[in-house]
Amino acid sequence: MNNKNILIFTDLDGSLLNHNNFQFNTIKPFILKCLRNNIRIIPNTSKTKNEVESFSEQLGVDIPYIVENGSAIHNLDLVCSHFGKNNKSLILSRTADEIFEIFNNKVPVSLRNQCLFLKDMNASKQSKVLGLNGEKLTSALNRLYSIPLIFKGPIEIKNELISIFNDLDIKLHEGGRVINICDNCSKGDAMKIILKKMEGIKKKYHSIVIGDSPNDISMLALSNQPCVVPLPDQDNLNKLKLKKVIRANQVAPDGWKEVVLKSLDRINFKFKEDSYG
Ligand SMILES: [Mg+2]
Protein backbone atom coordinates (compact mmCIF):
# COMPACT_ATOMS: atom_id res chain seq x y z
CA MET A 1 0.00 0.00 0.00
CA ASN A 2 1.39 3.36 -1.09
CA ASN A 3 1.23 5.75 1.89
CA LYS A 4 -0.33 8.46 -0.24
CA ASN A 5 -3.36 6.26 -0.75
CA ILE A 6 -4.21 5.96 2.93
CA LEU A 7 -7.00 8.36 3.89
CA ILE A 8 -8.13 8.86 7.48
CA PHE A 9 -11.55 10.50 7.75
CA THR A 10 -11.97 11.42 11.38
CA ASP A 11 -14.56 12.93 13.64
CA LEU A 12 -13.02 15.46 16.05
CA ASP A 13 -15.02 15.87 19.30
CA GLY A 14 -14.81 12.70 21.38
CA SER A 15 -12.85 10.85 18.68
CA LEU A 16 -9.62 12.81 18.19
CA LEU A 17 -10.24 15.55 20.77
CA ASN A 18 -10.97 14.67 24.38
CA HIS A 19 -14.74 14.78 25.02
CA ASN A 20 -14.40 16.96 28.12
CA ASN A 21 -11.51 19.37 27.49
CA PHE A 22 -11.03 19.12 23.67
CA GLN A 23 -7.27 18.51 24.11
CA PHE A 24 -5.13 16.46 21.74
CA ASN A 25 -1.63 17.42 22.91
CA THR A 26 -0.58 13.87 23.81
CA ILE A 27 -1.13 12.64 20.24
CA LYS A 28 -0.07 15.76 18.31
CA PRO A 29 3.41 14.33 17.54
CA PHE A 30 1.76 11.12 16.29
CA ILE A 31 -0.65 13.04 14.01
CA LEU A 32 2.28 15.00 12.56
CA LYS A 33 4.20 11.77 12.07
CA CYS A 34 1.28 10.31 10.08
CA LEU A 35 1.19 13.44 7.90
CA ARG A 36 4.98 13.32 7.38
CA ASN A 37 4.50 9.75 6.22
CA ASN A 38 2.02 11.01 3.59
CA ILE A 39 -1.08 9.60 5.28
CA ARG A 40 -3.91 12.03 4.55
CA ILE A 41 -5.99 13.08 7.56
CA ILE A 42 -9.38 14.64 6.80
CA PRO A 43 -11.44 15.86 9.78
CA ASN A 44 -15.15 15.16 9.15
CA THR A 45 -16.97 16.90 11.94
CA SER A 46 -20.10 18.72 13.10
CA LYS A 47 -17.78 21.59 14.05
CA THR A 48 -17.79 24.89 12.13
CA LYS A 49 -15.17 26.20 9.67
CA ASN A 50 -13.81 28.61 12.30
CA GLU A 51 -13.41 25.79 14.81
CA VAL A 52 -11.56 23.51 12.38
CA GLU A 53 -9.33 26.40 11.31
CA SER A 54 -8.40 26.88 14.94
CA PHE A 55 -7.69 23.12 15.25
CA SER A 56 -5.43 23.35 12.16
CA GLU A 57 -3.63 26.28 13.72
CA GLN A 58 -2.99 24.27 16.88
CA LEU A 59 -1.72 21.42 14.73
CA GLY A 60 0.42 23.83 12.72
CA VAL A 61 -0.56 22.27 9.38
CA ASP A 62 -3.27 23.06 6.81
CA ILE A 63 -5.38 20.02 6.00
CA PRO A 64 -8.57 19.30 4.04
CA TYR A 65 -11.74 19.05 6.13
CA ILE A 66 -15.52 18.58 6.12
CA VAL A 67 -17.71 20.73 8.41
CA GLU A 68 -21.19 20.84 9.94
CA ASN A 69 -22.07 17.16 9.37
CA GLY A 70 -21.19 17.03 5.70
CA SER A 71 -22.48 20.51 4.76
CA ALA A 72 -19.24 21.78 3.20
CA ILE A 73 -15.79 20.52 2.19
CA HIS A 74 -12.81 22.88 2.44
CA ASN A 75 -9.19 22.73 1.22
CA LEU A 76 -10.04 20.13 -1.40
CA ASP A 77 -6.81 21.10 -3.18
CA LEU A 78 -4.94 19.57 -0.23
CA VAL A 79 -6.61 16.18 -0.80
CA CYS A 80 -4.92 16.27 -4.16
CA SER A 81 -3.25 19.19 -5.95
CA HIS A 82 -5.17 18.08 -9.05
CA PHE A 83 -8.29 19.91 -7.73
CA GLY A 84 -6.59 23.29 -7.94
CA LYS A 85 -6.92 26.37 -5.76
CA ASN A 86 -10.07 27.60 -7.53
CA ASN A 87 -12.09 24.57 -6.54
CA LYS A 88 -10.95 24.27 -2.96
CA SER A 89 -14.41 24.50 -1.32
CA LEU A 90 -17.63 22.65 -2.07
CA ILE A 91 -20.90 23.72 -0.41
CA LEU A 92 -23.38 20.83 -0.17
CA SER A 93 -26.13 22.42 1.90
CA ARG A 94 -28.82 25.08 1.95
CA THR A 95 -28.31 27.84 4.52
CA ALA A 96 -29.25 27.42 8.18
CA ASP A 97 -31.95 30.11 7.72
CA GLU A 98 -33.58 28.18 4.88
CA ILE A 99 -33.49 24.95 6.88
CA PHE A 100 -34.96 26.67 9.96
CA GLU A 101 -37.77 28.10 7.87
CA ILE A 102 -38.75 24.62 6.70
CA PHE A 103 -38.64 23.40 10.32
CA ASN A 104 -40.77 26.30 11.52
CA ASN A 105 -43.36 26.08 8.76
CA LYS A 106 -43.73 22.33 8.40
CA VAL A 107 -43.09 20.65 11.76
CA PRO A 108 -46.11 20.44 14.13
CA VAL A 109 -45.86 22.77 17.11
CA SER A 110 -46.11 19.86 19.60
CA LEU A 111 -42.82 18.49 18.21
CA ARG A 112 -41.17 21.87 17.80
CA ASN A 113 -41.82 22.50 21.49
CA GLN A 114 -39.62 19.51 22.37
CA CYS A 115 -36.62 21.19 20.72
CA LEU A 116 -34.54 23.46 22.90
CA PHE A 117 -32.34 25.47 20.54
CA LEU A 118 -28.92 26.60 21.68
CA LYS A 119 -29.48 30.00 20.06
CA ASP A 120 -32.37 30.55 22.52
CA MET A 121 -30.32 29.69 25.63
CA ASN A 122 -28.35 32.17 27.67
CA ALA A 123 -24.56 32.13 27.40
CA SER A 124 -24.03 30.19 30.61
CA LYS A 125 -26.41 27.40 29.51
CA GLN A 126 -24.80 27.32 26.04
CA SER A 127 -21.41 27.09 27.66
CA LYS A 128 -22.55 24.21 29.89
CA VAL A 129 -24.02 22.24 26.99
CA LEU A 130 -21.07 22.68 24.63
CA GLY A 131 -18.31 22.72 27.27
CA LEU A 132 -16.90 25.90 25.71
CA ASN A 133 -16.74 29.57 26.55
CA GLY A 134 -15.54 32.92 25.21
CA GLU A 135 -14.30 32.96 21.64
CA LYS A 136 -14.55 29.18 21.34
CA LEU A 137 -18.23 29.28 22.23
CA THR A 138 -18.82 32.03 19.64
CA SER A 139 -17.01 29.98 16.97
CA ALA A 140 -19.08 26.90 17.79
CA LEU A 141 -22.34 28.83 17.49
CA ASN A 142 -21.36 30.62 14.29
CA ARG A 143 -23.03 27.96 12.12
CA LEU A 144 -23.84 28.48 8.45
CA TYR A 145 -25.64 25.22 7.69
CA SER A 146 -26.90 23.58 10.87
CA ILE A 147 -28.97 24.37 13.96
CA PRO A 148 -27.93 22.79 17.27
CA LEU A 149 -30.51 21.78 19.87
CA ILE A 150 -31.23 19.58 22.85
CA PHE A 151 -34.24 17.30 22.41
CA LYS A 152 -36.40 17.20 25.54
CA GLY A 153 -38.83 14.43 24.57
CA PRO A 154 -38.60 10.61 24.74
CA ILE A 155 -37.00 8.51 22.01
CA GLU A 156 -40.38 7.64 20.40
CA ILE A 157 -41.13 11.32 19.84
CA LYS A 158 -37.62 11.88 18.52
CA ASN A 159 -38.19 9.05 16.03
CA GLU A 160 -41.44 10.71 14.98
CA LEU A 161 -39.52 13.91 14.34
CA ILE A 162 -36.89 12.02 12.32
CA SER A 163 -39.57 10.52 10.11
CA ILE A 164 -41.16 13.96 9.50
CA PHE A 165 -37.69 15.28 8.64
CA ASN A 166 -37.26 12.51 6.07
CA ASP A 167 -40.36 13.74 4.27
CA LEU A 168 -39.07 17.33 4.42
CA ASP A 169 -35.67 16.42 2.96
CA ILE A 170 -33.79 17.59 6.05
CA LYS A 171 -31.90 15.57 8.70
CA LEU A 172 -31.34 15.26 12.41
CA HIS A 173 -27.71 14.44 13.31
CA GLU A 174 -26.87 13.24 16.79
CA GLY A 175 -23.39 14.08 18.12
CA GLY A 176 -21.80 13.53 21.53
CA ARG A 177 -23.23 16.72 23.06
CA VAL A 178 -26.02 18.09 20.86
CA ILE A 179 -28.31 17.22 17.98
CA ASN A 180 -28.13 19.32 14.80
CA ILE A 181 -30.83 19.96 12.25
CA CYS A 182 -29.10 19.89 8.87
CA ASP A 183 -29.89 19.79 5.19
CA ASN A 184 -30.18 16.37 3.55
CA CYS A 185 -26.45 15.76 3.81
CA SER A 186 -24.24 13.62 6.03
CA LYS A 187 -20.61 12.99 6.89
CA GLY A 188 -20.83 9.86 4.72
CA ASP A 189 -22.19 11.72 1.68
CA ALA A 190 -19.37 14.29 1.86
CA MET A 191 -16.78 11.52 2.28
CA LYS A 192 -18.25 9.76 -0.76
CA ILE A 193 -17.69 12.91 -2.84
CA ILE A 194 -14.01 12.99 -1.89
CA LEU A 195 -13.60 9.27 -2.60
CA LYS A 196 -15.29 9.70 -5.97
CA LYS A 197 -12.88 12.50 -6.85
CA MET A 198 -9.97 10.31 -5.70
CA GLU A 199 -11.14 7.44 -7.88
CA GLY A 200 -10.67 9.61 -10.95
CA ILE A 201 -7.02 10.11 -10.04
CA LYS A 202 -5.84 7.13 -8.04
CA LYS A 203 -7.03 3.63 -8.61
CA LYS A 204 -6.46 2.31 -5.13
CA TYR A 205 -6.91 3.85 -1.72
CA HIS A 206 -7.60 2.60 1.78
CA SER A 207 -9.99 4.56 3.97
CA ILE A 208 -9.85 4.48 7.76
CA VAL A 209 -12.77 6.18 9.54
CA ILE A 210 -12.83 7.12 13.22
CA GLY A 211 -15.99 8.14 15.09
CA ASP A 212 -17.74 8.08 18.44
CA SER A 213 -21.41 9.02 17.84
CA PRO A 214 -24.49 8.24 15.72
CA ASN A 215 -23.66 11.10 13.32
CA ASP A 216 -20.48 9.19 12.39
CA ILE A 217 -22.26 5.99 11.28
CA SER A 218 -22.79 7.17 7.67
CA MET A 219 -19.02 7.55 7.18
CA LEU A 220 -18.02 4.51 9.28
CA ALA A 221 -20.24 2.36 7.04
CA LEU A 222 -18.39 3.53 3.91
CA SER A 223 -14.88 2.84 5.15
CA ASN A 224 -12.45 0.03 4.51
CA GLN A 225 -11.61 0.17 8.22
CA PRO A 226 -14.22 1.52 10.69
CA CYS A 227 -12.93 2.50 14.15
CA VAL A 228 -14.86 3.55 17.25
CA VAL A 229 -13.48 5.53 20.19
CA PRO A 230 -15.45 5.23 23.46
CA LEU A 231 -17.01 8.24 25.16
CA PRO A 232 -16.39 8.55 28.91
CA ASP A 233 -19.24 6.97 30.95
CA GLN A 234 -21.55 6.55 27.97
CA ASP A 235 -22.72 3.66 25.83
CA ASN A 236 -21.87 4.89 22.39
CA LEU A 237 -22.21 2.97 19.17
CA ASN A 238 -22.18 -0.27 21.19
CA LYS A 239 -24.83 -1.75 18.95
CA LEU A 240 -23.07 -0.75 15.74
CA LYS A 241 -22.82 -3.85 13.60
CA LEU A 242 -20.07 -3.33 11.07
CA LYS A 243 -17.60 -5.91 9.86
CA LYS A 244 -14.11 -5.80 11.38
CA VAL A 245 -14.70 -2.61 13.42
CA ILE A 246 -11.77 -1.72 15.69
CA ARG A 247 -12.77 -0.36 19.10
CA ALA A 248 -10.35 1.65 21.23
CA ASN A 249 -9.88 0.78 24.89
CA GLN A 250 -8.96 4.37 25.75
CA VAL A 251 -10.99 7.55 25.29
CA ALA A 252 -9.78 10.39 23.02
CA PRO A 253 -7.23 11.57 22.29
CA ASP A 254 -5.16 8.45 23.14
CA GLY A 255 -7.90 6.14 21.82
CA TRP A 256 -7.48 7.82 18.41
CA LYS A 257 -3.80 6.89 18.23
CA GLU A 258 -4.65 3.38 19.44
CA VAL A 259 -7.14 2.70 16.60
CA VAL A 260 -4.93 4.30 13.93
CA LEU A 261 -1.99 2.10 14.95
CA LYS A 262 -4.20 -1.02 14.96
CA SER A 263 -5.67 -0.07 11.55
CA LEU A 264 -2.23 0.50 10.03
CA ASP A 265 -1.01 -2.76 11.51
CA ARG A 266 -3.86 -4.62 9.76
CA ILE A 267 -2.56 -3.48 6.38
CA ASN A 268 1.08 -4.04 7.38
CA PHE A 269 1.87 -0.37 7.09
CA LYS A 270 5.34 0.56 8.37
CA PHE A 271 6.30 4.13 9.28
CA LYS A 272 9.48 5.42 7.72
CA GLU A 273 12.22 5.41 10.32
CA ASP A 274 11.92 8.53 12.42
CA SER A 275 12.22 9.25 16.07
CA TYR A 276 9.20 11.50 16.66
CA GLY A 277 5.73 10.54 17.93
MG1 LIG B 1 -17.94 13.12 18.09
Detailed description of the structure:
The protein has 277 residues and is α/β, with parallel strands linked by helices. Helix content is 35%, strand content 17%. A hairpin with a 4-residue loop joins strand 3 (65-67) and strand 4 (72-74). The longest helix has 15 residues, at 187-201. It is globular, with a radius of gyration of 18 Å. The site of magnesium ion (MG) has 8 residues, from loops.
Number of domains: 2
Oligomer: single chain
What is the typical, i.e. mean, pLDDT?
Answer: 92
Main β-sheet description: 5 strands, parallel
SS-based class: alpha/beta
The arrangement of helices and strands along the chain is EHEHEEEHHEHHEHEEHEHEEH
Q: Please give the radius of gyration in angstroms.
A: 18 Å
SSE layout and pairing:
Blueprint (H helix, E strand, L loop, with lengths): L5 E5 L17 H9 L3 E4 L5 H11 L5 E3 L4 E3 L15 E2 L4 H11 L2 H4 L2 E3 L5 H8 L3 H8 L5 E5 L3 H14 L1 E5 L4 E5 L3 H15 L4 E6 L5 H4 L4 E4 L17 E2 L6 H13 L11
Parallel strand pairs: 1-2, 1-10, 10-11, 11-12
Antiparallel strand pairs: 3-4, 4-5, 6-7, 7-9, 8-9
The structure holds magnesium ion.
Magnesium ion (MG) binds next to loops.
Key structural traits:
single chain, 277 residues, alpha/beta, Rossmann fold, Threonyl-tRNA Synthetase, Chain A, domain 2, 2 domains, 5-stranded parallel β-sheet, 4-stranded antiparallel β-sheet, 10 helices, binds magnesium ion
